[in-house]
Amino acid sequence: MANKTPASDTLKGFTSPRTPKGTSGIVAPPPWHYVGQVTAIEFEADGEKIAPYLPAPMQMESTQCCVYFIEWQYTSETTEDYLDPVESQYRETILLMSGSYKGEAMAYCPFIWVDQDKALMRGLIQGWPKQLGSTHMSRSYALESKAAPTGLSAATLSVNGERYMAGRVQVHEADANMPAPSFAGSALVRYFPDLVKGNHQQPLVHELVQLKSRDVQISKVAKGEAMLDFTVMADHELSDFSPKKVLAGYRFQVALTVDDLKPLTKL
Fold first, then answer.
1. What are 148-190's pLDDT values in tens digits?
2. Cα(145)–Cα(150) distance, rounded to whole angstroms?
3. Region entry Disordered: which residue ranges (predicted)?
4. How many whole angstroms separate alpha carbon 39 and alpha carbon 228?
């Protein structure tokens, strides 16, 4: 009779599907390396509407929010994903609000949309509440052309074929501070429900965590005027964040590595 080896000893991989070789998982093990082109727009929202989005340990720091439209390129530590644009390139839209935890200012992410399954899975592991959506961004070029006016850029978010956001930035300041709130060091909620009958209101994982990125590089930050419209239907909860006042727009590049997370508290 052949020896039987427990499946837990033969199946490998950081995420499912776990296999004998461990190379078919949707996400490779960290470190994860990213570089991206960012268009960001600061704005103020209705404090009474957005405050309930913060998990109970956090408090609202101000009504200032920021939306980040980002075109990313990614690679793992052990692969050369950047040589395959289909694997490595994706776009996402991140909405952040200004919160604090135990007196420390800390952004919080109520909504985020991404257009690739691998990026969605990496985000869920960290606590980003990612959903599928299509982000589109105009590009700048060194050549003068009416197709790419100097300093002017635009970005949109569509979900299930419906336009949710449209933004535009005209930069005029070449070396400004980063927009706020920043996605570096954001607070996130890691949540995984339990399908077992009787446990639906008792999630398997429910905790507040803080991002820990390393080897962060930021290019010079260009700043200028901006416009931002939320065209989502009024009955969609994103409408709670509809801009009351647009503050400023930004363009910059960022690079970082992710391989750690800081647990803050169980929820």
1. 888 999 999 999 999 999 999 999 999 999 999 998 899 999 9
2. 8
3. 1-24
4. 12
Q: Is 1 exposed, middle or buried (0-12, 13-18, 19+ CB in 10 A)?
A: exposed
> In this structure, what token pair is assigned to residue 251?
């363009």
What is the DSSP annotation of the chain? ------HHHH-B-SSSSPBSSS---SSPPSPEEEEEEEEEEEEE--HHHHGGGS-TTEEEEEEEEEEEEEEEEEEESSS-GGG-HHHHEEEEEEEEEEEEETTEEEEEEEEEEES-HHHHHHHHHHT--EEE-EEEE----SS--TTS-TTEEEEEEEETTEEEEEEEEEEEEEEEPPPSS-STT-EEEEEE---STT-TTS-SEEEEEEEEEEEEEE-PEEEEEEEEEE-S-TTSGGGGG--SEEEEEEEEEEEEEEEEEEEEEE-
Burial class (CB in 10 A: 0-12, 13-18, 19+), 239: middle
CATH number assigned to the domain covering 27-266: 2.40.400.10
State how far the Cα of 110 lies from the Cα of 92, in Å rounded to an integer: 14
The reported pLDDT for the residue numbered 6 is 59
- DSSP-assigned beta bridge partners for residue 165: 157, 230
* Residues comprising the chain, all counted: 267
Give me the DSSP letters along 92-115: EEEEEEEEEETTEEEEEEEEEEES
Rounded-to-integer distance, Cα 165 and Cα 95, Å = 11
Tokens, residue 61: 């720091």
Per-residue pLDDT, 233: 75
**In angstroms, how far is the first alpha carbon of the chain from the final one?**
49
Could you read off the pLDDT of 107-128 as tens digits, one per residue? 999 999 999 999 999 999 999 9
